[in-house]
Amino acid sequence: MLNKGSVVEPLPFQFFNHYFWAIAIGISLINYVIGRRRIVAAIGLGQSQPNDMLGLFGRLCLFSNMPWLVMGWGLLYGGVPSVFSYLQPQDHNPYVSCWYGSLLLLAIVNALWILLADGAGRVRELQQLGAFGSRQKNATMPEWTIKLLAILGPVFVLIWIYWMQFVTVEAPH
After folding, report:
1. Of 3, 94, 146, 165, which has fewest CB within 10 angstroms of its CB?
2. DSSP readout, 35-83?
3. What is the C-alpha to C-alpha distance for residues 137 and 125, in angstroms, rounded to an integer?
4. Who contacts 46 (Cβ-Cβ below 8 Å, separation ≥6)?
5. CB 120 within 8 A of CB 150
6. How far apart (Å, rounded) are the C-alpha atoms in residues 116 and 163?
């Protein structure tokens, strides 16, 4: 029985509202399959041959899904009412804070790998940006540019988190 003031969301919106994280993982898997095909075509490997580039690309795709898994955990088990709650870090929901933390951690780990573990050389050598659909061959991209982009990643996430504190978005509950 509906209360007089309650509103029922249409089914597609309910699905989007509670399973956005699964949609994002699904899109990521599609991008992984397309990127893997591009890598295999670019280096002329058979589908079953192991390669450094394929391994690196697979790990990158796996780690990139961590924030979506954190979001899914919060929506399914953490009492986060909707995907729109993730636009309200000022509510200090611990699951929302963990989601922002996972984004920041991912950006920091990426930057550290690029800067300290010769990740820039690997990205340049293995043309990883090309696997993501970049039109420009990043073999010509200087390593300092890759390092600069890696440094800007955590800075961008911190600015975004700070900015979100002042945005008021009313989440449907």
Report:
1. 3
2. HHHHHHHHHT--TT---HHHHHHHHHHHHHTHHHHHHHHHHHHS----G
3. 10
4. 40
5. yes
6. 29
For residue 53, give the nearest of 166, 104, 129, 116 by alpha carbon. Answer: 129
What are the structure tokens assigned to 96, written together?
């929302």
Alpha-carbon distance of 84 to 18, in angstroms, equals 9
Q: Where are the domains of the chain?
A: 11-164
Amino acid occupying residue 118: D
Spatial CB neighbours of 23, under 8 Å, sequence gap ≥ 6? 16
Q: List, in order, residues 6 or more apart from 85 with CB less than 8 Å away.
A: 91, 93, 96, 171
Model-level pTM? 0.74
pLDDT digits (tens, 9 = 90+) for 99-135: 999 999 999 998 998 888 888 877 776 665 554 445 5
For 5, phi and psi rounded to 5 degrees? -95, 0
Q: Say how far apart CA 63 and CA 39 lie, in whole Å.
A: 19
Closest among 70, 71, 87, 95 to 167, alpha carbons compared: 87
Mean pLDDT of 8-35: 83
